[in-house]
Write a structure and sequence with these properties.
Layout (H helix, E strand, L loop, with lengths): L3 H16 L3 H4 L5 H8 L3 H19 L2 H7 L2 H21 L3 H30 L3 H29 L2 H6 L2 H14 L19 H29 L5 H25 L7 H20 L5 H25 L4 H33 L3 H18 L11
Length: 386
C-alpha cells in the first residue's frame, strides 16, 4: 500500500503536470497584437495558434488505446511534457510565423499525450477518490492558464513577446523532473486495455457534444477575449488581467467542483447554473462589453471552471470499470477537442472579414441553449453498456 507521503508526492506531480497543459495556448491571447505585428500573421492564421493544438489534442486522444499500447503511461506523460518544453523553448529561440505554427503542433501533441494517459492512471490508482483527484487535476490545468495568461503580457513589457512565450519551458522542465521522480518504481496501469466500441454508442456522442461545445466556449475565450478588448482600446496588460480574472474564476469553480462532486450523484443542478452564468457573460460581451467587462469575465470564468471538470467526470461516470471509463473519456475528449477547435477558428474568420467579434459571442450564447438541452439528459446512474 502506498504511504501518505507517496500519495501526496504523486498528487503534487499530477498538479505540476496539469499546470503545464495550457500555457502553450493561454500565453498567446494577450500578446496576439504584437505577434501579428511582428510576424504578419492574419487573424485566421493567428487563430490557428489555438485551433491547431486543440484539434491535435482531439486527434491524439481518439487514439488513446493505441497510445497506451505503444508507450507506457509513466514514459508517455514524461514525453508529453518534454514536447511541451521543446515547443516553448523554440518559440523563444526562433520567433517566426512558421515556427509558431510548428510549435503549436508540437505542443498540441505533447498536451494530447498527457491528457490521454493521465485520466486512466488516475482512475486506476485513486479508486473511489478518482473524481476528486480529477477535479484537482482539472483545476491545475486552469491554474496554469491563469498564470500564463496574466503574467505573459507583463513579461513581454519587460523583455519581449518571444521571451514571454518561451519562459514556460521552465515549469515544464520542473513538472517533468518531479513527475519522473515521483513515479520511479511505480507499475504502469496493469493489463492491456480493451478496445471498446465507444463510437457505436449514441450516449457517447451526446457526451462528446456536451464536452466539445462547453470546451469550445473556453477555447473561444482563451484565444479571442484579450484581442477583443485590445481592439476596444485596452492595453495588453489590462486584457491579460481580464483573461486572468476568467481563469482565476475557473480555478475557484474547479476547487468547488472538486469538493462537491463526490457528495452529490446528480451533477445537473450545478451544470445548469454554470450554463446560465456563461449565457449571461456572453450576452454582456456582445451587448455591453465595456460596462460589463469585469462581471461578465467573472461569470464566464465560473462557468468554464465548473463545466470543464464536470464534462470529464460525467463522461467517466458512464463507465462501470476503469477501462470503460478511460475509453469513454478518451473518445469524449478526442472528438470534443476537435469540435472545440472550430470555434476559435470561426471567430478568427469573423474578425478578419467583419472586424468584429460580437457575432462570435452571440453564436456561443445560442450554443448555450444546446448545452442546456444536452445536460437535461445526463441523468445520474446511467452507464454505457458494452
Amino acid at each position: 500500500m502506498p504511504t501518505a507521503y507517496n500519495r501526496w508526492l504523486c498528487a503534487l506531480a499530477i498538479v505540476l503536470v496539469g499546470i503545464n497543459l495550457r500555457p502553450t495556448m493561454a500565453a498567446i491571447g494577450p500578446l496576439l497584437d504584437a505577434i501579428q505585428r511582428d510576424t504578419g500573421l492574419s487573424d485566421t492564421g493567428a487563430s490557428l495558434l489555438t485551433t491547431l493544438p486543440v484539434a491535435l489534442m482531439g486527434v491524439c486522444l481518439l487514439a488513446t488505446a493505441r497510445l497506451t499500447t505503444w508507450v507506457k503511461e509513466r514514459n508517455g506523460i514524461a514525453l508529453g511534457l518534454a514536447l511541451i518544453l521543446m515547443s516553448s523553448l523554440l518559440r523563444w529561440l526562433i520567433p517566426s510565423a512558421d515556427l509558431l505554427l510548428a510549435t503549436a503542433i508540437l505542443g498540441g501533441i505533447g498536451i494530447a499525450v498527457v491528457q490521454a494517459m493521465l485520466p486512466i492512471l488516475i482512475r486506476h490508482r485513486a479508486g473511489v477518490g478518482a473524481a476528486s483527484l480529477m477535479g484537482v487535476y482539472s483545476t491545475a490545468i486552469m491554474g496554469g492558464a491563469f498564470l500564463s495568461g496574466t503574467a505573459s503580457p507583463w513579461m513581454a513589457k519587460v523583455y519581449d513577446w518571444p521571451a514571454a512565450l518561451g519562459i514556460w519551458a521552465l515549469p515544464a522542465l520542473v513538472g517533468c523532473l518531479v513527475w519522473w521522480g515521483a513515479t520511479t518504481g511505480k507499475d504502469n496501469v496493469p493489463g492491456k486495455p480493451r478496445r471498446l466500441p465507444v463510437s457505436s454508442k449514441s450516449r457517447a456522442w451526446l457526451l462528446l457534444a456536451f464536452f466539445g461545445l462547453s470546451t469550445g466556449a473556453y477555447t473561444l475565450v482563451l484565444a479571442w477575449l484579450p484581442p477583443f478588448y485590445t481592439g476596444l482600446g485596452w492595453s495588453a496588460e489590462s486584457a491579460g488581467i481580464m483573461l486572468g480574472i476568467v481563469t482565476l474564476a475557473q480555478v475557484v469553480a474547479g476547487v468547488g467542483v472538486s469538493y462537491w462532486v463526490s457528495r452529490c450523484a446528480d451533477r445537473r443542478l450545478v451544470i445548469f447554473a454554470a450554463i446560465g452564468a456563461l449565457f449571461l457573460g456572453l450576452l454582456g460581451f456582445a451587448i455591453e462589453p465595456q460596462l460589463g467587462a469585469w462581471p461578465c469575465a467573472l461569470l464566464a470564468g465560473l462557468r468554464i471552471g465548473a463545466l470543464f471538470p464536470l464534462g470529464l467526470i460525467v463522461a467517466m461516470d458512464h463507465g462501470e470499470t476503469a477501462d470503460e471509463a478511460g475509453a469513454i473519456a478518451g473518445f469524449v475528449q478526442g472528438g470534443g477537442y476537435v469540435l472545440a477547435a472550430a470555434l476559435p477558428l470561426l471567430a478568427g474568420f469573423l474578425r478578419q472579414h467583419l472586424a468584429d467579434l460580437s457575432l462570435a459571442w452571440w453564436l456561443m450564447a445560442v450554443l448555450c441553449l444546446v448545452l442546456w438541452l444536452i445536460a437535461s439528459r445526463l441523468r445520474p446512474g446511467t452507464h454505457i453498456s458494452f
